Amino acid sequence: MNEPLKNQDFPQKPEESHSSLIQRAMQAFDRGQFVPPSGPADLLPPSLTPQAPVQAAPVQAPIVPQAPAQPYAPAPIVAPVAPPPQYGGQTYGEQAAHAPQFAPQQPAYAPAAPAPSFHRINHQRLALEGFAVPGGGANAQVEEFRLVKRQLLEQIEDLRRQGAGVEAQAILVTSALPEEGKTFVAINLAMSIAAEKDSEVVLVDLDMARSSVLSTLGLPSGPGLVDAIADPRIDVRDLVIKTDLGGLSVLPGGRPTASDSEYLASARAKAVLARLVEGHPNRVVVFDTPPVLAAALAVEVAKLSAQTVLVVKAEKTSGSAVQDAAGLLSAGCPNVQALLNGVQFSPSGRRFGTYHNYRG
């Protein structure tokens, strides 16, 4: 098969002496009736006869060129320099993976909005439920909590002048028994303090079995104070939830464990409290704990607080329960103050906020 073709196998006619090698090969194989295919740049209408031999590509299959309906410009055979076209936000063909720098003119999706830096609370719902929401207008209840918080803030300043530690910035709100309104008082007191121009407040929901503070304000549960005490790798400041109520933040208690009281009685609990108020000299920490006579946790939190507010339900809580709760709390916090809740009538016209002190 590799032997060269011999002249006697393909005799030449006198008129073919000037034919090209390609033309003679085409005639020898009886393919003279086919026109060799032309390259895209050399394609011409069949009405024009080329004056010079055409450099044809290797013969593969017969191609009968069709005259175009309209004149057109031949496509270039040189690779494009510009980036390949894009369709629907993606680069056409396989070029998409190799040309990330060519962003689509219109993105296929809108970028996600950044997460808000605070959580919104339903002010209108809280006002309807009887909470003294700042900015909701003056009423008797708002004024009552203003009187209560003023006394507490003045005592904080006195404790600071006396050189008290971080406990001076902490206030415990609890009750002797359940259903006495301690969470209601804690939230109202925290919102009232948050309305101060020179103060901010962190409300800590340590009644972890019920998480009443979080559910009332519509805030998500998650790791909290006890988790930061149990795990030194956790920064308690990262767990604080800011709200859209200026000056008010909330700190969850965390996941309930069988050792919550022991964690709060540890030396690390005071270190975590110091971390929480570090760099915030005007920050007040308000603890909401389970009832004193229902769990031992409130007694341990009292040791971290310079002031304790014991909520007493009018015409419900017995005097003995109040005395027992106050005695337990005063062992850790010498400044225990009782707040009478649910008063319907008093000779002075006051309906809420009767205040007593129990000092151990």
From TrEMBL:
Recorded GO MF terms: protein tyrosine kinase activity
InterPro entries found in the cross-reference section: Bact_polysacc_biosynth/exp, P-loop_NTPase, Wzc-like_C
Transmembrane segments: none
Residues forming coiled coils: 142-169
Record's signal peptide: none
Spans annotated as Disordered: 1-54
Keywords: ATP-binding, Coiled coil, Nucleotide-binding
GO-annotated cellular components: plasma membrane
Protein name: Mrp family chromosome partitioning ATPase
Protein species of origin: Novosphingobium sediminicola
